[in-house]
Amino acid sequence: MGWLDRLFGGKAASTPSPSAFAHALPLGLRIGGQVQMDTMLYRVAPDAMTAELPQGHQGIPCYGHVDLGDGYALHRFYLDDDAFVQVSTCGDAVEAIKGFVYCESVNPPNKAAFQEFVLRHPHLGAERIEYAGRQWERSTQSTQAELRIPAIAYDEVLYRHQPPRRDGDLTHYAMLYRREVPELQRDEFLLVTGEDSGPNEFCITYAVGIDLTEADLDIT
Asked: What is the full per-residue pLDDT of the chain (220 aa) written as tens digits?
């Protein structure tokens, strides 16, 4: 099991895609395209989840690529309504699909405050945290079960426009948490991320999401 599996986990089917970049884009997702996610589960138990994915067809104005090494990559398709679809791949195989919606954004006043959050705040590494009135357990696996672990760092290259072109870079310091949702017999995820787009641009984001399958996506 690679460290990408330890962070994001899961399995899903693979679909070939157009090659607009030096690497293939999964599932036919692309800048300028649209995707609709199945949100029926939110109607089943309206108050069970912390946040809901956006409804209806969402445009994709931005794509982010994270090269994790050893053939692993994250593909993030940012949507119109403060959400993104994340596809984890190894080579040409899709290993997991998640949908996230942003719940909160915090701007540290300076670089020192950002570094303090990344290095010491429990939301980036503690075994258990509280957020939005709910208890979350660290999903990122570690042998140090009872200890705070360092945030996982990775760089993301952003693409926008038509035809797509590179339009920014940022460094993430991230930790994934999860909680069981008994009403729906599934897990909800909390991705806490310190984003450094430098030299003086820092942000802490909280995004809540769920596992998806290809069948949950309507891509046009």
From this structure: 343 343 444 433 333 333 347 888 999 999 999 999 999 999 998 899 999 999 999 999 999 999 999 999 999 999 999 999 999 999 989 999 999 999 999 999 999 999 999 999 999 999 999 999 999 999 987 766 678 999 999 999 999 999 999 999 999 999 999 999 999 999 999 999 999 998 889 999 999 999 999 999 999 9
The whole-model pTM stands at: 0.88
What's the per-residue H, E or C state across the chain?
A: CCHHHHHCCCCCCCCCCCCCCCCCCHHHCCCCCEEEECCHHHHHCCCCCCCCCCCCCEECCEEEEEEEECCEEEEEEECCCCEEEEEEEECCEEEEEEEEEEEEEECCCCHHHHHHHHHHCHHHCCCEEEECCEEEEECCCCCCCCCCCCCEEEEEEEEECCCCEEEEEEEEEEEEEEEEECCCCEEEEEEEEEEECCCCCEEEEEEEEEEECHHHEEEC
Query: Could you tell me the residue ranges of all domains in the chain?
Result: 3-219
